[in-house]
User: Fold this.
Amino acid sequence: MLDRAVYDEDAATLSLWFRGRGKYVYSGVPRAVFEALAAAQSAGRYFNEAIKGRFEGRFDPARRRFRPQA
Assistant:
């Protein structure tokens, strides 16, 4: 379910990459929640129990790379 997780201490945001769904950013997440996610036996189960619906999340569309026109 989860492909990658990155925590931004200064912004208190948790960025999660979901397989096949893209990146979502969750606001107001304490560092302890990130650490528990990283230590969880099942990251997907922990996400569903402790993050989903408890923290404001928003889809972060992938940045596109633009090439100069030839």
Summary: The radius of gyration is 14 Å.
